[in-house]
Amino acid sequence: MVEKVCYSDLKQILFDFLLKVIPNFQNISAVSKEKLVNSFVPITFLPGQILFEEGAKPTRIYLIQEGDVMLTSDLSPIATEVRAGRLQEKEASS
Predict the structure, then answer these.
(1) What does the DSSP assignment read for 12-62?
(2) CA–CA separation, 12 vs 67, rounded Å?
(3) What DSSP line would sit under 63-90, residue for residue?
(4) What are the phi and psi torsion angles at 90 (to 5°)?
(5) Torsion of CA 24, 42, 56, 19, to 10 degrees
(6) Which of 44, 80, 35 is nearest to 62 (CA)?
(7) Domain segments of the chain: what residues?
(8) Angle CA(8)–CA(88)–CA(70) in degrees, nearest 5?
(9) CA dist., res. 19 & res. 21, Å (int)
(10) Calpha distance 70→58 (Å, rounded)
(11) How far is the CA of 59 from the CAs of 29, 51, 53, 72, in angstroms?
(12) Contact 51/45 with Cβ under 8 angstroms?
């Protein structure tokens, strides 16, 4: 079970995540870091809702706090199920 966190805690989690995945993030000014972290907002999606289409230009970063997302590809026979905090590959159904 995924533990729900309050929005201010989520911002700290995002900040820590960005420190890990973005080279030299620690060298960005404090003002820029604050703007970036504050640009993250919680969004709720409906079951079956399409978040983005394959090949579309990325406009957002998604961090899954709760629930599942299914990533599929017309170019690959593998579907990837994304659950809050982990990835799981499985055979795509025909």
Answers:
(1) HHHHHHHHHHSTTGGGS-HHHHHHHHHT-------TT-----TTPPP----
(2) 20
(3) --SSSEEEE--SS-SEEEEEETTEEEEE
(4) -155, 160
(5) 10
(6) 44
(7) 1-42, 44-94
(8) 75
(9) 6
(10) 17
(11) 23, 11, 11, 18
(12) yes
User: Which single residue is written with the structure tokens 């003002």?
Assistant: 31
CB 15 within 8 A of CB 33: yes
**How far apart (Å, rounded) are the C-alpha atoms in residues 44 and 31?**
28
Contact 69, 82 (CB under 8 A): yes
The model carries a pTM of 0.53
pLDDT in tens, the chain (94 residues): 445 556 667 777 777 877 887 777 778 888 887 887 788 788 888 988 988 888 888 888 787 777 888 888 777 666 666 666 555 555 544 4
Q: Which tokens in the block code for residue 42?
A: 């919680």
